[in-house]
Structures are given as structure tokens and as C-alpha cells.
Amino acid sequence: MVHGEAWTIKEFFCYPNEYIYWTIQIVMYPFMTGLVAGAFVLSSLYHVFGVKQLKEIARFSLVFSFALLPVAMLPLMLHLQQPQRGIEVMMTPHFTSAIAAFGIVFTTYALIVASEIWFVYRAYFVETATALGGKRERALWERILYLIYRILIMGAWDISHEAREKDEKAVKIVAATGIPVACFLHGYAGFIFGSVKANALWMTPLMPVIFICSAVVSGIALCIVTYTVTMELQKMISARKRQQKPWLPSTDELKSAEVLVVTMTSKYLLMFLVLAITLEILDLVFRGYTALKSWDILRSVIYDKDFFKIFVLQYGCGNAIPFVLLLLPRLSLKRVVFSSLLVLMGVFMMRWNVVIGGQAFSSSFAGFMEYRLPVWPGSMELFKEGLFGALLVAITPFVLFFGLTRILPVFNLKDSP
Amino acid sequence: MIDRRDFCKKALLIAGGMAIPLSALELFDPKRLQAEKSDPSPTRWAFLVDTYKCVGCGFCVKACKIENEIPYDANVTRTWVERYIVARDGKTYIDSPKGARDGFTSPKIDQGVEPPAEVRNEDIEKAFFVPKLCNQCDNPPCVQVCPVGATYQTPDGVVLVDRSWCIGCGYCIMGCPYGVRFFHPVYHVAEKCNFCYHRISKGMKSACVDACPFGARRIGNLKDPNDPVTRVIMTERVGVLKEEYGTKPQVFYVGLSREVK
What we know:
The complex is a heterodimer.
Chain A: E1 8-12, H1 24-47, H2 55-79, H3 88-91, H4 102-134, H5 140-153, H6 161-194, H7 207-242, H8 251-290, H9 295-305, H10 307-327, H11 333-355, E2 367-371, H12 380-384, H13 387-407
Antiparallel strand pairs in A: 1-2
Chain B: H1 4-27, H2 30-37, E1 45-50, H3 59-67, E2 80-87, E3 92-95, E4 124-132, H4 141-145, E5 151-153, E6 159-161, H5 171-175, E7 182-183, E8 190-191, H6 197-200, H7 207-211, E9 217-221, H8 228-235, E10 251-254
Parallel strand pairs in B: 1-10
Antiparallel strand pairs in B: 1-9, 2-3, 2-4, 5-6, 7-8
């Protein structure tokens, strides 16, 4: 069977070789990079612009952004027909291609996030390593940790007041350079689509900007959800611990701090949401108004074939409802989390409607193609480009995040920058 | 005694200093300079399709599949023939069952919807066949978007794919407005018509040209003013497909109609 045949249904006249070649993994790719960029921008709001209320969530989203990073690459590897050659993009980049920049942008960004994390956590590394080093007997786990921290410190053991101030300054600089790079990382994912002149739906110079805005929206939303969930877990754990150690913060104290952080963050979510919606509507209106040759087929895709996915799921449930929910007075934690989940769904649907919707019509403008998501992984191909492949991509960052927080704890750190 | 810092500094200096003259060698490669000054190639392959002559027998598709080892029953093909039926009510019906590998043997129009459409003979205003193949564009978007340079344009204008280098991302398939690219079902890399480059570079015609019993398909060299194909392209009224994309296609059509997609 030809690649793509298993999940493509053609209707009316499509060219014989046309199939839905870019499937669920290519939906996951901009979605995941969007989360990376968004989480980083959120953390930068504190580090660069000094939004004090976001201090707690800033460190959290920074580490989370790092956990999401390798996962931005995973869907691409699962999508490639020759994944073993994927490294060629780094080794022999062909620079007229938008994808060729991936290696450089991605590596730069990874280095920036890694170095920012290093500066934020250096003092913690030193303190922990000193404490572990002072111990007479160390368990196996502690010995491993001690080794890891000693490697991570890289000889910079000075944690005097001046050294820490230098760290803070470095964090600020790195975070500030990180913002444009994060935007570039994601804007260029938009450019990959926006520059395909053969695709009538994709080709618009607005695409990179739309992608950046929705990226920030989704990143903030995911940070809110994950932050709240981990805080709830923390509360459960600390409630149990408090029975033995009463000096730990009470559940109420934790709760009030959490509500403050989350409602504050949701304000930024709203701002970027408005920007994203405005641009998307502008794009739609412009296409209808100029009504180029492709508009006939685009209209039947947007207003007929994909109506439910675009107007009900994406704009309705994903944008309008959370928008109203976040603006209503007496904002509660549950409402913010619920809205954030809806926003995440909305952004995912936006990626879906761009990637799959862009292939829902033939480039002959005389036929349609429908994508049927493969559910049961009957073969490697159906696994990779089906539901389970997508789930694998969705779950991995949380596993990585759990692993990372063993070394880089994100809560109850006293005085890191 | 040289200390570590000094050693590193000097090593960098020497490495950098050596890199400058080496890069100069690349900048002034005399062979490349010579090649760029003179015309790089005496040949520019172009294709001429006379749609008046095509009867939709599908011999070209069959020959192509066999010649280029595209699995015979796979629903992909390097070349295909489209049938256009314009009915009296103004509706256009288009189909290309199996890429017209077995020709058009039924008046039923296969459009992937049941039941197949059928236009009565007396309701047909006009009907014709249009063979399609890679346009070997002068400004090929597929070459532009390949992230690893696995697809490239030869000096004589044909766009080729390096099967040992293609990573199979599908960006070129997305970038082609003509839908000529696909993934090879056996090699799992991008695949396309290359005017039978292995044949034309040895003085033969492409397989489809040889297989066409009516002379609807012809191949020629645009840089040779006496080439019969070039003569037709220069002196008669010919059209190309989807000029608006700026791809500068090099497959020319006689008798192109506005219905052609």
C-alpha cells in the first residue's frame, strides 16, 4: 500500500498521487514547539520584565519548557520515512528550505534554555552538593545525585552574594535573548507552512505571527494546568507530612499563593488569546474579501466540510467560551483550569485545521480529501502516524518533566533568582 | 613554559589563521569560475504534449510504470492522463482511474463517489484528454524546500531525487502545485518523473514518448533551435500549467483548455 492511502479518502477529482502526507504527527509538531515557546515566554515574563507575581510559575515553566524541548523533535522523527537520516538536516542543511534552519534554531534555543536553567539552579546545585558532600555515608541514590550535581556545577562553587547577583544578571540576559529565539523557533514553524505557495490555505505571511501568538497561548495554558495539578499533589503530600512536621506551610497558605499565581497568569493568557483570535479572523476575512481563484474550494472546506472543527471546536469551545469564562468576575481556580484546558484543545484544533485542513482539498481545486485518523496500530506506519503515536508524543514531556524535577526541584526553593 | 590559557589562545589563532587561506581556495575555485562564465550545458530538456492527439489509451502510463519500476498496482504514478468531459449544463467532470494506466474503457466517470457520474453522449459539449507529468520547472519549488538537498536540478534542467539522501519528510510533495511527487512504495523516499533521465542522457526518448502511438508526447532540447519540439514551442501557440505559481514549467501543451486543472 502506498504511504497515505490507509487514511485518505478522496472525493471528486484529486490528482492520482495526492494523499494526506502530513498527518497527526505534523499536527503534534507545531503544537509541541508551541508549548515549548509559550512556556519559555511565560518564564521570561518574570525573569526579564520582573513580573514578581509570576516567580513561582516562572521556574516551573522554565523546567517544563526544557522537558518539552526534546519532544518537539519526536513527532518529526516519527513522521520521517527515513528517520535514520534525520540527522542530515543538521549535517547537510540546504538553506533555501525552511526546515533546514531547524537544526540551528533548535540547538540555539536548547542551549539558551539549558544555560538559563544552569544560572537559575547553580546556587541550589552548590548547596545540595555541599550538603551531600558533608555527609559521612551516602545511599546509592545520594551518591548518584552527588555525582550529577558535581558535574553540573562545572567547578563554579562560589555562592557568595556577589556571585549570586552575577547569576541573576546572567539569567536576565539569557532570558531576554531567549524570547526572540523562542519566537523565532515557533514563528519559523509557521513559516514552514506559510511559505508553501502550492497550498492555498497555508500560504499567508500572517502564518508565522498567528503561530507565535497561539503558541504563547497554549504554552501558558499548559503551564497553568500542570502547575495547578502539581500544586494539588503538593498539598496532598504536605497535608500528610504536616501531621508529623507542623512547621510546614499549611494547605490554606499554599492554596492562596496558588490562586494568586494562577489568576495572574490567566490575565496574560487572555491578552495573547485576543491577539491570536484577531489575527486568525483577519486572515479569514481577507481571504473571503479578496476571493482569489482558490477561495471557492477554501470556502467549501472552511464553511462546509470543516465547519464543526473550525467554528465549533476551535473558535467556539477553544476561544470564545474560555474568553468569556476568564472575563467573568470572581475567577476561581477550577474555572481557570477548565478554561486553560479548553484553550489547549482550541489551539490543538487550530493546528489540526491548518495541517489537515490544508490537505482537505486537492491542488486541482476540484476534489476533496478526508483524513481518517488510524486508531488501531496494525502496522508500524499506522502506529507512527496514528492515535497511539500522537499519544506517545503527548505523554513523553510529562515523563521527562518528572525525571527532570528529581534533579531540578521546582517548588519550595528559597532564594534562587 | 606555556600555560593552558595561552595554549588554547594560540591554538585557536593558528586554526583560524589556517582557515582563511583554505576558504580562499574555495572562493576562487577556477573550475567553477570557468563553468559559470560559459553556458553550463548545451541542453535544456522540454516536453511537448499535443492534447488534440491524445486518445487516452494509457500506453504511456503503462510504459512509464514498467520502465521506472513503480509497482504496477500501486495507486501512484509518475505520469498520468486526465479525462475532461464538459457537459451542456456547464459542469466539468474530470477523472483519471488508476492514473489511466488501463486507458479509459468506460463512459462512467470515476470520482470516488457512488454512483459514478455518467454524461449522455448528446449532452457532451466537449471532451478531451490531458497527459500529465513532471514539469521540470525552471524555478522548482520542490528543490527549494528540500531540507537536505536530496532533490536537485541538473544543468540540463531535469529535477532528480537522490534516493540515498532523501529523508522522506514530504516537504517537496507539499511544495509541488502539480501533484507529481509521491513516496515510492518500495524505497520510501520521494519519487517523481525525471523525463526518463537514464534514457534521454543516452540519446533515447523517454519511455512514454516511445510508447505513445499517436505522437501526442514529444521531448526535445530547447537550446537547439532546429529541434522540431523547440520549433513548435517557439512558433506555435502553446500553454503551460499553473503559470501563476511562478514555477516556470517546461512541459508545453498544445490545445490547453481553461477547464484543465
